[in-house]
Amino acid sequence: MSKQTCGMIRDLLPIYAENMCSEESRQAVAAHLAECKACSEALRKMNTEVRVKADDDIAVMKRIKRRIRIEKIVIGAAVTAVLLLALWLIGFTLLNSDTEMDYNRYNLDTYVTVELDENGDLWLVRDGLAMTADMICPTLSDKNGNHFGYDQGFDKETKCGMGYTLRQRKIDAFAYTDLSLGGPVRSLICNINEKPEITYVFYYEAETNTEHVLWERS
Ligand SMILES: [Zn+2]
User: Fold this and answer.
1) Residue 204 contacts by C-beta under 8 Å, 6 or more apart in sequence?
2) 147, 173, 174, 204 from 179: Cα distances, Å
3) Ion ligand 1, residues whose Cβ is below 5 A away
4) Distance 52 CA to ligand 1 centre (A)
5) DSSP label at 183?
6) What is the mean pLDDT of residues 88-100?
7) Kindly report the CA angle at 196 between 152 and 190, in degrees rounded to 5?
8) Ligand 1 centre and the CA of 1: distance in Å?
9) DSSP secondary structure code for residue 104 in this structure
10) CA–CA distances in Å: residue 23 to residues 13, 29, 209
11) From ligand 1's centre to the CA of 14, what distance in Å?
């Protein structure tokens, strides 16, 4: 077999391998391959290389798909984390925001009273839903009916009233935590012998600026 013939056949081998040459060329190449080991070997190598290249492409595709999958997981986890954080913040805010207890709705005129015992101790007594209040906010009032926060400088000469406002969690379901408690809850206000400046005690509706007198010094 002449080298020249082999050279021509080798030029044709790629399109022969792809089955894209004319019938005439295909027959010529096939006839040559039947007799020439070197060209047969060249064709075999060529087919192997094509297959290896295809395998490489599949590996690259798999790597890309895997990377896309990992990216999806990471993005999904980040979005989930942000959503959970937002939910937690909303929940935390809702659970921890409070509001003044509704005086009429919870019958505070009935369930918030004041008792004086034989020792001169004055007690704030809460019953019913008034027991579920999260906070008892004290306030002070002067002779002119002005109200002060409990920590706004106590002036014994001018302030004479002790008031209380009940506050609860904004969401009722979270406000009623102590409903299983039986009986009234008593909180010591003061001893009237030690606090002569306290002349009366009242329940204070801050939102309507209304005093409901519970006890007056006789
Ligand atoms: Zn040949």
Assistant:
1) 139, 141, 147, 163, 164, 165, 210, 211, 212
2) 31, 11, 11, 23
3) 1, 6, 36, 39
4) 24
5) S
6) 87
7) 70
8) 6
9) T
10) 14, 10, 105
11) 14
- Tell me, in angstroms, the distance from the centre of ligand 1 to residue 3's CA: 7
Cα dihedral sign for 170, 171, 177, 178?
positive
User: In terms of Cα–Cα distance, which of 206, 140, 128, 200 is closest to 167?
Assistant: 206
Residue spans per domain, the chain: 3-94, 108-216
**209's tokens:** 């600026």
Type of residue at 46: M
Tokens 């959503």 found at: 83
Enter the pTM of the model. 0.58
* Distance of CA 133 from the midpoint of ligand 1 (Å): 101
Q: In this predicted structure, which of 14-23, 94-103, 136-145, 176-185 has the lowest mean pLDDT? A: 176-185
State whether residue 157 is helix, strand or coil: coil
> What 3-state class would DSSP assign to 155?
coil
The alpha carbon of residue 5 and the mean position of all alpha carbons in its chain are separated, in whole angstroms, by 78
Cα of 5 from ligand 1 centre, angstroms: 6
